[in-house]
Amino acid sequence: MSIVNHPPKEEHLAHLRKCVISKYGGAINNKAEAESFLKATTLNISIETVLRLFGVKKGMVSPNYLSSFTVYVSGLGWFDFVDKYLAECDQRLRFIPMACLEEKIGFEDLKEKVTTLEKRAIVFQIFKEVILIKFAQKDIEFFNRIFEFTNIFDDEKYNYETYYIIQLLGLLVLKNEWLQTIAIEYYHSLNYNRDYFVEWFVQPNEVYYNQLLDNYYKGSKGDRKKEIFYHLIKATQVIDASVHCKELNKVESIFWENHHILAMRWFGVQWIKEVDNRETIFKDLEKYLETKKDHGDYITCILFLTQYLFKTNSFDEILELINTIEQDKIVLGHAGYLNWNNLKVYYVACLLEKRDNQKATTIFKTIEPDQFDWNFRKELIKLYEEVNGRF
What we know:
Number of strands: 0
CATH topology of the largest domain: Serine Threonine Protein Phosphatase 5, Tetratricopeptide repeat
Order of helices and strands: HHHHHHHHHHHHHHHHHHHHHHHH
Strand content: under 5%
CATH class of the largest domain: Mainly Alpha
Distance between the termini: 51 Å
Structural class: mainly alpha
């Protein structure tokens, strides 16, 4: 039996109301109709409870009272009723990819079906299947309008599910010019809290991504975070980064405190561009990292910074940072675990540079190359293969 959060979800209540009306055979829109319903069904509940369920009167109906209705329509208690409904939804969900394969469902119908679904892991899995089918069919309209599937992209509670959809979409774009053309035109200035595609699938060495990034900046409309992201990416992609660094130097410290990944990019840019000031930069970095108490955030910070430090062969500094991680005590969530796996590739490379082969061998054996993030996968695979060849 699943645990249903309180208050009960509106989708589940709507399904219950539909079932009640279907069995009862009449509407319940006012007090008189609620009284008629109770006389006909002899349910041991108050008129106020009936009116609350049907939205005539404000207030939440508790699961105990909801069970009175669900027993009436199905013989099941509230939680089992919801489980049965979700199982039926799952079965109907599985017909969506098949309808796409048969090309019997247009974009608007598909959009309606998907956007009215309750957000659950299976919905995101089905949507991934739809993406792959639409890719095989080279469905231009679908990919032009993919970010109109609002319930896939508008809820930060499902960040990981959304992230992996962006990774899948990004990989398809990376390898197909026709999708790159679509991405450049449509995958920026999204109407969500995040500009997912630009910010979550960063490929600064790709021509299409830089065109996309330019459009993202043009559409930022004074959004400070987007402007800063743009300057951070551009700062390491151009020979003369003075314009970008000038803008970044204007950013208040409170912004960096609230955006740790962007802060690491800024430390990295300074490390590359201000060679004579590295001692001060590193001290400032250490002070910043002292504020990061969450193990996952701490490791993520070091991972993003390491990508800049490694370009300048700053092996000692990388090792110094990694050695501040209490590896025997860290407790990581999903993102932290994956980023630690990514970071260990750089860790091993630095250990080998310092001729600590024994420790490098031990760490190397724990790396899972199939779990590398696609944002850095190309670089990580290359480095992983290089260090593997040195054992």
